Fold this protein.
Amino acid sequence: MNLIDYQDSRPIYEQIVENLKIQIYKGILQENDQMPSVRSLAMELSTNPNTVQKAYAELERQGFIYTVKGKGNFVKGNSSMMDNKKNEIIAKIIRLFKEAQDIGIPLNELVHDLKVVLVDSQNGDTEMSFDINLIRKGEGQHD
């Protein structure tokens, strides 16, 4: 389990929180699964147990895990968690589309460019970065 990127400017506990949330969203960690102990995860990640404890406390505060005294931490079962995240992402996309519209980017152009990037990412490009000039010239176009 590699949850830490030392090149990332975010604090280590935040990286742990985000990566564990992704594992919960993807179903890798499922409802009522026991989380690794603070000590074992700290050893696995070569980090301070206080850092892992801080991450677990944040996950509990956000409603992703719960603690059973004397037993450990467990994944909280919340079927609406994924729906809430999906709605949050859609709201962000809508805000970005609105911002693009406000500065004069045609919707059809924006949708086309996004499709190209998404198709490329599904075809094995793990990075969703792109050069808009290459897209406009037709390179990487998959329509």
Remarks:
- The mean pLDDT is 85.
- Strands lie at 65-68, 72-75.
- The two ends are 37 Å apart (CA to CA).
